[in-house]
Amino acid sequence: MTAVNRLARLAEDYPGIPARVLLKAHLLFEGLRFNPTLQAAGTWALPSFKPYFPTPEERRASLPETVPIPYLMNLAGGELVRVKCDPESPYEAIAEDGETLLLLDGEPVEEITFQARPRWYAGTTADGRPMSAVGVSQHGDMLVINAAPGCEFFVEKDDAGRSLQCSFCSYGRPDRRTRELGQEMGRGRIRPESLERVVETTVAALPEVSHVYLVAGSLADNRQEGERYLQLTAALIAAGVRDVPITAGPSALCREDTQALKAAGAAAVSYNLEVWGREMFAAVCPGKDRFIGYDAWLQRLSEAAEIFGPGNVLTAMVAGIEVDHPRGAASVEAALDSAEEGADWLLTHGVAPVYSLHWSTRHATYGHVSSPAFDYFLRLARRVHRLRRHHGLTTPGHIVCHRCAYMQLDPDFDAAA
User: What ranges do the domains of the chain cover?
Assistant: First the structure.
């Protein structure tokens, strides 16, 4: 099957989904084969936080134990895609004559680029810290500030001694990274020196970004978590970060703290529910369920939409966990119906859901992702897009757009419309 025929077959299988969205989704699931072009790009592109681990055969060909690879690539239509290596992928990138071509089954599809390290990335703060190591990163035109990544749900335990972390997450585990950023578990406010570095780096990055997203690990004390985001927002506004919208992404805050964020200058909030349904929420997000609760989370999302206005409140959802989880839906169709019900409720209440694909642990970096997961992701994306049109609430471009959404399809539907 030729590259053209393979993509045409996808269009036949998923009518109503734009060709650009199909290509991005296919790449997200299939990944790229590792080759010298990817290795060379790793020396100058924004690096992935997970390097490539060469096979024994590649090691015998003198590759080191780990090889830096690019984190993100831009397609010809401006779409941003997370780079994932998969030795079985039909895709690869080949650099020749000053351009990089995306090949499918050995045939050229289009020209791509890997996201270069932004200019601010090479800077240093006033106290000599590399700006690349202060808890700030850049995804396309979005600056992500995460000066306190350690999540307390990793250390909190249930009655059986099990961690209360979200079942799909491994990023927030307290580790050397959190210590290097000066984070202390149980402390809501960011240390003054860490805050100064973050603010200085953000100001340096402003010419290269269109929106700012604040994120951090969750705290068992939700009021302390609200204090952390208020501290960050107020410091950025005081430093002159006013023309670029700031979105705060804590756990769902109470009405008082949500109002305080709005008053401080935040343009939007993202209270990430992750999964629809009370039982699934308890199974997938035990920490969120214990310290806030499902009904309270929905209430706080609705309150946030009243305070910030419809279109200024997001909630991230992990598309596919309801199929993969041991306590998930009885069938794919049941999972789709439940997720669609959730999207309808959220949109009715002025909240825009955004769906990140679920890579199971064995597929999170390398390895082939099953076609049922691909099918589920696309069918859900199509259903939710129809609901957005029905409710008249598109994905808010000032919060997340197709130039920065690297594992979501929602903004790409709107861009292709």
Answer: 3-114, 120-270, 271-417
The string of pLDDT tens digits covering residues 382-406 is 999 999 999 999 898 899 999 999 9
Q: Quick check: 90 and 27 in contact, CB under 8 A?
A: no
> How open is the CA angle 144-93-59, to the nearest 5 degrees?
90
Which has the minimum average pLDDT: 81-85, 165-169, 241-245, 302-306? 165-169
Cβ neighbours of residue 273 closer than 8 Å, sequence gap 6 or more: 252, 281, 297, 298, 301, 315, 316, 317, 346, 353
Question: Can you give the length of the chain in residues?
Answer: 417
Interval 159-175: pLDDT, tens: 999 999 998 887 888 88
Question: Do the Cβ atoms of 150 and 106 come closer than 8 Å?
Answer: no
> To 10 degrees, the CA torsion angle through 35, 36, 37, 41?
110
Residue 217 CA to residue 63 CA, distance in Å, equals: 35
Domain 271-417 classification at class level = alpha beta
For residues 76, 78, 82, 87, the Cα torsion angle rounded to the nearest 10 degrees is: -10
Whether the model clears a pTM of 0.90, i.e. scores above it, the answer is yes
According to DSSP, residue 254 is labeled P
Residue type at 160 in one-letter notation: A
Q: Are strands 246-248 and 268-270 parallel, antiparallel or unpaired?
A: parallel
Residue 33 CB partners (closer than 8 Å, separation 6+): 85, 86, 87, 89, 91, 92
Residue with token string 């369920």:
289
Q: What is the full DSSP assignment across 40-56?
A: HHTTTBPBPSS-B---H
